[in-house]
Specification:
Elements: H1 28-37, H2 45-54, H3 66-76, H4 86-106, E1 113-114, H5 116-125, H6 132-142, E2 148-149, H7 150-170, H8 182-190
Antiparallel strand pairs: 1-2
Helix pairs in contact: 2-3, 3-7, 4-5, 4-7
Membrane topology: Peripheral membrane protein
Domain EF-hand: 94-129
InterPro entries: EF-hand-dom_pair, EF_Hand_1_Ca_BS, EF_hand_dom
């Protein structure tokens, strides 16, 4: 079974901060990161939500989806702190920019939303080959009146990427099939 390359737009090293190594003070993003992160030097879901809402990522005047923020942190939280360090934050920025470009390229009417067919093309462009039934279930889960907003699209992309990565790690023969013990399955799903 062939899997999409990386399942999204993030790749390469840079997973979290190195213990005791400090962060590159000369990086222009570092001051922005510290402003968001506050006292503990880490970004939690609430801080990420405020950041993305203030940046207008959700569109309009509504707050960015908090569940999507939790999913994004879980996707990058390799040290299992429930928060993001500076390198994880930068990696998220790359992913968000890629997903935004992808979303905009399939939002044909420039409404700020996409429909199920546009979602199918967007996911297909990232290498996901899903059945019509799976696409229908995804569309129902992430749409409101058949339309998917950008922040719901992000939540969808993060969930599909995380599920694919979890599945891929267990599909050692790369045949598109795995066996899960019930407890392992629950742990995998609940950590996403």
């Amino acid at each position: 079974m062939a899997y999409p390359g990386g399942g999204g737009y993030c790749s390469g090293p840079g997973y979290g901060g190195a213990p005791g190594g400090g962060y590159p003070q000369q990086d222009p993003m570092y001051a922005y990161f510290l402003n968001i992160a506050g006292q503990d030097g880490q970004i939690d879901a609430d801080e990420l939500q405020r950041c993305l809402t203030q940046a207008g990522m959700a569109g309009g005047y509504k707050p960015f989806n908090l569940e999507a923020c939790k999913l994004m942190i879980a996707m990058l939280d390799r040290d299992m702190t429930g928060k993001m360090g500076f390198n994880e934050f930068k990696e998220l920025g790359v992913a968000l920019n890629g997903w935004r470009q992808n979303f905009m390229s399939y939002d044909a009417d420039r409404s700020g939303t996409i429909d199920g067919m546009e979602l199918q093309r967007a996911l297909g462009s990232m290498g996901y080959r899903l059945s019509p039934q799976a696409l229908n279930a995804i569309t129902k889960r992430y749409s409101t009146h058949g339309r998917i907003t950008f922040d719901d699209y992000i939540a969808c992309c993060v969930k599909i990427r995380a599920l694919t990565d979890t599945f891929r790690r267990r599909d050692t023969a790369q045949q598109g099939m795995v066996n899960f013990m019930y407890d392992d399955f629950i742990q995998c799903i609940m950590s996403i």
